[in-house]
Design goal:
Largest sheet: 7 strands, mixed
Number of domains: 2
Helix content: 40-55%
CATH architecture of the largest domain: 3-Layer(aba) Sandwich
Shape: globular
Number of helices: 15
Bound molecules: S-adenosylmethionine
Number of strands: 9
CATH topology of the largest domain: Rossmann fold
Distance between the termini: 56 Å
Radius of gyration: 22 Å
Order of helices and strands: HHHHHEEHHHHHEHEHEEHEHHEE
Amino acid sequence: GKKKSLEIQPELIQNIAWGHVRTQVLATAVELDLFSAVHNGNGAVEKIARNLNLPLRSTRMILDALVGMGLVGKTRGLYKLEPEARTFLLRGEPGYLGAFLQFDEFSRHGWSALTHTVQSGKPLSEFVLPDYRKKFFQELVKRIFPLSYASSIALCKKLGIGKKLKNQKILDVGCGSAAWSIAFALADPQAQVTAVDFPEVLEITQNFVQRFRLQKQFELRGGDFHTLPFPAESYDAVILGHICHGEGEAATRKLLKKSYDALKPGGKLLIAEFIANDLRSGPELPMLFALNMLLFTEHGDVFTTKEMRRWLSFVGFKKIASMAVQYPVTVIAATK
Ligand SMILES: C[S@@+](CC[C@H](N)C(=O)[O-])C[C@H]1O[C@@H](n2cnc3c(N)ncnc32)[C@H](O)[C@@H]1O
């Protein structure tokens, strides 16, 4: 039968409406390093509050909110981290995502313009000024390092980098922090990487490369990847890590062709993206991310595997495979 109006609850809408509160609770817990305090203590709220020098009442309240959100568990009054929090929210752990979670001015400002942007169909003009973009990327690439790096470690394992595939020549296009190629260079000490980005961003790249002591394996090349020529048939792998969504269809297809020409026969193009399903009805994150592209770029969007496959076959790629790495990233690997 038909649902009576009392049986239809506004739960979905209420949950969405409180989404920004969830973001802030997580950001505050990260800022106060509450997760380490829960992990290191015996789980008693008194001890957690004392260790952090916080009032008991507010500590109990934020811990209970984290329990409600599913990040912390509570049994017989004692708090304990759930596995996701233990893996990704403990400061100093390799998987730590805390730095990425700090809600920055760039995104606050951008999202507050959403109504205007949906009405105009165009990003605010300030967001597409070259100087703004370079500053934005300098900040962004530091924050997304742990995301791309974790995905790249998983990708290298799947591809057999340093085992089946050694001595690789790699081109990392729009390298940012070089998170993708750093994992390749560590897995394959014979690998040689050419990393391309704007000169301003390469200052950040250089810090990361030095941090991992990989200077000998890296050559940094400053410039605009639209106009910078790539040498023909020179690379075993070309990496496009979170590049295509910012470019849109036309520029992406040009980059795919340019990457194809730069690859040796048998070489692989590796594209990391938030991929939408073929109907563009989900998953939720790629659908939200498309709006992020509407806000900050002129032509950006998310794409489906089907679209990517069509464009890749069109420029001549043969074997095309897609693999899930760290959520929510998919890597599409296409062989020349
Ligand atoms: C979303 S970030 C991705 C960084 C890195 N590949 C990753 O996955 O972590 C995009 C990168 O592409 C660079 N970029 C964007 N447009 C570019 C262009 N036209 N020429 C060179 N680099 C560009 C940005 O500076 C930024 O570092």
